[in-house]
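Hey, quick one: can you model this chain's 3D structure?
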Amino acid sequence: MLRRLIPDPFLIALIFVVSLAALLPASGTVAKAVDIAANIAIGVLFFLQGARLARETVITGITHWRLHLLVLATTFVLFPVIGMALHTLAPRLLTETLWIGMIFLCALPSTVQSSIALISIGKGNVPAAICSATGSNIIGIFITPVLVGFLLSARGEGGVDLTQVGKIILQLLLPFIAGQILRPQIGAWVARQKPILSMTDRGSILLVVYSAFSAAVVNGVWQRVSTDDLVMLFVIDAMLLALVLVITAAAARMLGFSKQDEVTIVFCGAQKTLATGVPMANVLFPGAQAGVVILPLMIYHQLQLTICAWLAQRYARTITQTEAAPAE
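Sure thing. Here's the predicted structure for all 328 residues.
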């Protein structure tokens, strides 16, 4: 009970970094140095992700193609449709920059680590989850910039050019491929360093958040985002998450998936990645705008962790009871 009341340490760290950027934003030469360090850290993050991923696991999970199609449809079709519908129905609920952040959130791929952890807790199909979440991230490197450009163009905003897509591939995909190539040499070592690598993962995200928010603060972000905006953003993010959780669970049952597969579909489908989203926003949007654009993602990230952790425990109890029933 006490653990449920204690906030997620990563959330505390994010709040601290945002507060630090508000009080002591990096500017000038310091900002350039922080930006370079953030780019290097993100490259290391994706290199280590490539080194961690066992190809055998991917091959085992990839045969479950119906599940992967449903997850990808949720991630790259259902989310954008809901996001655009919310904007069309209530465009005045948020500022234009925050709506851009919502559209960007809806176009992002799924998470990897948190999805797999939650699916494991919920007794879901873990091999399929690893394949689906990782595939979503790799595909997202190509699809997300194009999808963001298309959706913003449909709203009359500027699109995304090929130069930005190339930057994302250079910063995210190439380090991941390098990690996969070197996995036979360093994979075992990487697997033994989970606590240190977890700190590296989160540290790189915090560094990028500090860089983006510093640029936003220098350009007057708090004059453009009010407390009312943050409250409304929280409500819209919660509505978005609830809708996707309900729709994915209903779709999994209607299509005849097992309970274990349903857990995988729900969590891989409803999660959005902060690790990929923050560096992508840094490339796709100007520094001052990127700090505001990632606000919807940061709030959604905490909501998905909190609500899905509770939901995973419910799924685990249900599956345990179902498995115990024949024995009784």
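One thing worth noting: The chain has a mean pLDDT of 82.
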